[in-house]
Amino acid sequence: MVDQINNPIVKNNIKNGVPHNIEVLHTNEYIDYVQSLGFSNPSRMKFLFMENSLPSSQDSSMRVALLVGHAKIASLEGKFVEAKLQFDKALKYAQVRYLPKLSVKDRDNLIAYIHYEYALYCQLVHAGELANSHFYHASALTKSAKMKLLIEFQFALIDLYQSSESDTGAYIQFIEKFHQNEMKVMEGIALMRLGNFYRDRKDYTESHKCYKSAMTIAEKEGYNYLRWNIQNSMGLLVSKESSQEAAIQYYTKSLESMESPYFKALMLKNLANRYYAIKKPNKTREILTEALEHCQINGISSQISILAEGIGDLYLEIDSSTSHAYQYYQIAFNEVISLANTGIPITGKRLRVVEKYSNLIQENLPEDFMALKEPGLFEWSKGKTWIQIKDLFHYNLFVYHFLHTGIGNVTFSQLKIHPGTFYSLSKRMRDLRGITIPDLKGVDFELPPSLFLDPLQKYAQLHRDKTWDQVNKQFEKDIYAYLFEESGYNKVRLAKMLDRSYAMVIKRTKHLTDVEKDQTTQTKA
Questions:
Q1: pLDDT in tens, 414-463
Q2: Which residue of 146, 403, 433, 506 is 20 to 30 Å from 73, comparing CA positions?
């Protein structure tokens, strides 16, 4: 397996032996897009994209537009971490002191634009509540009619897909407004999304019409990303309307000329799914493995966990190989935690990855903790005080049970803990240490990697049948045994390490020293 590579935001894409700046392939779309909003000098922006450079700080609006352009393109290419870094950089730059020459209206419109694009990014990472927050910030700031139109369109798009009916009248009005305002990029995107809607509703005739109209715009204006997006969507239409075999031919041919690393990954994934549909799981696994390695090499973080999870599933299905499945589930899990470390929430498919990895461990690790010979189970505790250790343990214990036993009263019943005890403990952790035990009932929540620890999840599952009192007693016994050894069996040093009183340490290690005395006595006898 190829190790994941942290590539810079601008990744060279090789086609016919000629390297291309991937952002150049997006240039026409982005320039036309921001020009329609009144932000750019198209010829200068194209030059700066080609040269991969930023203008001087004196040209503040151009600078912000390019920063957001880099972020937007990174997100469209599945590079979620790079995208977030660039969006945060753009927001930081767009503070008042960096935009002294702009009027209040222009500055507000510029900041509103950053919030709008940030909201679209949040939708991609399934952070719905945060996306809505950015949309509302943008709407409150902007005085631009076109920007308000974009925001209204995004909510109309959500309404279209959530509607149980096929009434597209209100949505089509947005397509007409984009056409009237010569917002060609948005017109093409809106047509393609409508085509997806009709495809999912099995209205294939209307879907074809929308794709054809969108493709006409894409080819005429040189909008590469829109063209690739339509191509990918067309493959799904072929699979639904015609046959899986026809879709296999379509994707295979499309891959030959695909310039976008991201859409190559998507098409490989869709191609693999077509092979799975015709009951060729080995071919499916082969293509998914190729797609995973492609994503790792190109830093396409949005797809790594999904692909690794799929490969793990197939190892279980084809070979009943738990060890191979574990290897790929672990890749998926580590990627999810890596994304979470940058602020991307563990939700949706990423939450499913965490649950699947945890379930595999739960089903295959030994029941008896003393039989578990895994190095590093308690290494996370080094350098932490007793309060910090207990907080991490309680956080992971409750998260584990919420995920696997049940939320709220189901867990309280399993642990035999009074709800008031839990709420008091969680309030104290939140107020004094800033640690919030997540409400997993919500769609959007985060499991920060600094708190959500794989070794503690394993420990919680090993003792999942114990009550609250029993598991705390067991944990205290095990962690003290580990740390006592780490201290060199020096109780004074251990007390200092844990920031606990010497008397308390003597009490908690008494059983360990008693064992040593018993062994010494037996030896002498």
A1: 899 998 889 889 989 998 889 988 877 654 566 788 898 888 988 888 88
A2: 146
Q: Give the separation between CA 464 and CA 272, rounded to whole angstroms.
A: 37
Residue 309: which residues within 8 A CB-CB, separation 6 or more? Answer: 328, 329, 332, 349, 352, 353, 356
- Of 50, 69, 73, 71, residue with least CA distance to 61: 69
Q: How far apart are CA 500 and CA 387, in angstroms?
A: 9
Per-residue H/E/C for 267-307: HHHHHHHHHHHCCCHHHHHHHHHHHHHHHHHHCCHHHHHHH
* Confidence (pLDDT) at 58: 52
Q: Which residues have C-beta within 8 Å of that of residue 7, sequence separation ≥ 6? A: 79, 298, 299
* 462 vs 39, higher pLDDT: 462
- Taking phi over 0 as left and psi of -120 to 50 as alpha, with beta for the rest, 366 belongs to beta
119-124 own/partner pairs: CB under 8 Å, 24+ apart: 119/154, 120/72, 120/75, 120/154, 121/71, 121/72, 121/75, 121/80, 121/83, 121/84, 121/87, 123/154, 124/75, 124/80, 124/302
Would the pLDDT of 497 be above 60? Answer: yes
Other Cβ atoms within 10 Å of 180 Cβ, number:
9
Q: What is the 3-state secondary structure (H, E, C) of 86-109?
A: HHHHHHHHCCHHHCCCCCHHHHHH
Token pair belonging to 172: 């089509």
pLDDT of residue 96: 56
Q: Nearest CA to 262 among 3, 447, 72?
A: 72
Nearest to 453 by CA among 322, 323, 308, 341: 341
Q: Which residue has the tokens 């394993």?
A: 458
Burial group, residue 147, by CB count within 10 angstroms (0-12, 13-18, 19+): buried
Range of weakest confidence among 198-207, 353-362, 436-445, 467-476? 436-445
Task: Count CB-CB contacts under 10 A for residue 490.
Answer: 13
The residues facing 15 across adjacent strands are 18
Q: How big is the chain by its Cα radius of gyration, in Å?
A: 27
CA 189 to CA 519: how far, in whole Å? 75
Task: Please write the tens of the pLDDT for every residue from 72-117.
Answer: 988 988 998 889 988 988 888 776 555 666 777 878 888 898 999 9
Residues of the chain with pLDDT > 70: what percent? Answer: 83
Question: Model-level pTM?
Answer: 0.66
On the question of pLDDT at 515 being above 70, the answer is no
Indicate if the alpha-carbon torsion angle 314, 316, 321, 322 is positive or negative. Answer: positive
Does residue 370 register a pLDDT over 50?
no
Taking the C-alpha atoms of residue 4 and residue 92, their distance in angstroms, rounded to an integer, is 29
Dist. CA 383–CA 385, nearest whole Å: 7
Give the span between the Cα atoms of 168 and 173, in whole angstroms. Answer: 9
CA distance 33 to 35: 5
